[in-house]
Structure to design on (378 residues):
């Protein structure tokens, strides 16, 4: 009996694999779509839409999972999971152009969704907490001179962005007034102007007043951990100024978010909530291209939730916004008594997964270690 040799291909560049076996180079680009597979969840289809989508998928050799009662009509709506090669999904999209019940539009969306590729060089967002009570470095940079010194150090270590916050949003923390935040933030922003520091500056705040004052002082990004929910004027400030905004998913507020957080379907709930917040921002006049999303590690999540988010972070790319991930020194490391350097080393290990998954931004305390990580992944 002939002993055949088989090996799984996990290398993401299927084009190179095809070329290596001598495949026709003139056709290789189109052929790649036959060897790349994708599963897409489509929410809230009517019974008619779900049944037509399933039958259409079967005609091209793909498949579509629906609620078991879709065929009987005992349910009014069904989520669907459509799976197949990129080539098959394109064919399904084309076939839906001739179908009723709004499926022509679904076909166009499937084609656009499938065509989009997340190609990104991960950027480092350095954290500067000028607070007395942040969870890992509270008080270390509360002095303005020390804060400015650390900011310069992170710039020299290779940060792409500096994210500055004067209000701790760790679990069970209380809000800080806009006046107290600005008292700490504005001198640092003045230092940045004086030193001609050119990398983008982000301000971590939920306050529209703080955001506006900092934008006036040269800030290019606002990082709102409440997802524009805490201050009803925040979206207007972002829209009128034209700066970028980081919209984070948070379940609850810092005062209560870690009191028994629960999700029926974690990634669905995060995805749909972020989509809702994006739509809200755009309706308020925020340019969609200026929106970055963050799933909010540790903000209303259990430790198990946090690791599931990291494993499935690529699902958020379907929101068509850059994605930021912040795991640095957080409680998911389960190292409450370790020093910060030890926490940073394990943070780098976790962020290796984020870099492999092409996350757009990683928010970190130790910029130098993460710059070395990115240099290894060139």
């Amino acid at each position: 009996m002939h002993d055949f040799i088989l090996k799984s291909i996990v290398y993401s560049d299927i084009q190179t694999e095809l070329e290596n076996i001598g495949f026709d180079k003139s056709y290789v680009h189109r052929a790649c779509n036959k060897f790349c597979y994708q599963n897409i969840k489509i929410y809230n289809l009517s019974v008619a839409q779900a049944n037509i989508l399933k039958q259409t998928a079967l005609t091209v050799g793909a498949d579509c999972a629906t609620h078991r009662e879709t065929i009987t009509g005992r349910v009014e709506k069904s989520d669907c999971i459509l799976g197949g090669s990129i080539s098959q999904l394109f064919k399904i999209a084309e076939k839906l152009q001739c179908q009723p019940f709004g499926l022509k539009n679904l076909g166009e969306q499937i084609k656009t969704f499938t065509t989009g590729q997340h190609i990104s060089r991960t950027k480092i967002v350095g954290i500067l907490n000028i607070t007395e009570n942040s969870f890992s470095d509270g008080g270390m940079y509360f002095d303005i001179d020390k804060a400015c010194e650390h900011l310069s150090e992170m710039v020299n270590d290779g940060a792409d962005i500096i994210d500055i916050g004067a209000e701790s949003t760790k679990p069970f923390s209380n809000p800080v007034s806009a006046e107290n935040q600005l008292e700490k933030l504005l001198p640092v922003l003045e230092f940045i102007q004086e030193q001609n520091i050119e990398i983008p500056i982000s301000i971590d705040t939920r306050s529209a007043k703080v955001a506006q004052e900092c934008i006036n002082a040269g800030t290019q990004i606002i990082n709102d951990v409440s997802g524009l929910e805490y201050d009803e004027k925040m979206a207007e400030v972002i829209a009128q100024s034209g700066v970028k905004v980081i919209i984070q998913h948070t379940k609850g507020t810092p005062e209560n978010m870690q009191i028994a957080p629960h999700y029926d379907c974690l990634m669905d709930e995060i995805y749909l909530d972020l989509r809702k917040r994006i739509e809200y921002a755009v309706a308020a006049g925020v340019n969609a291209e200026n929106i970055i999303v963050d799933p909010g590690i540790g903000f209303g999540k259990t430790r198990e939730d946090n690791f599931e988010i990291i494993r499935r972070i690529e699902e958020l790319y379907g929101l068509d916004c850059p994605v930021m991930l912040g795991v640095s020194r957080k409680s998911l490391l389960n190292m409450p008594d370790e020093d910060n350097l030890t926490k940073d080393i394990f943070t780098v290990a976790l962020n290796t997964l984020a870099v492999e998954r092409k996350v757009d931004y990683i928010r970190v305390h130790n910029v130098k270690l993460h710059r070395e990580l990115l240099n290894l992944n060139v």
Q: What stands out?
A: The chain is about 40% helix and 15% strand.
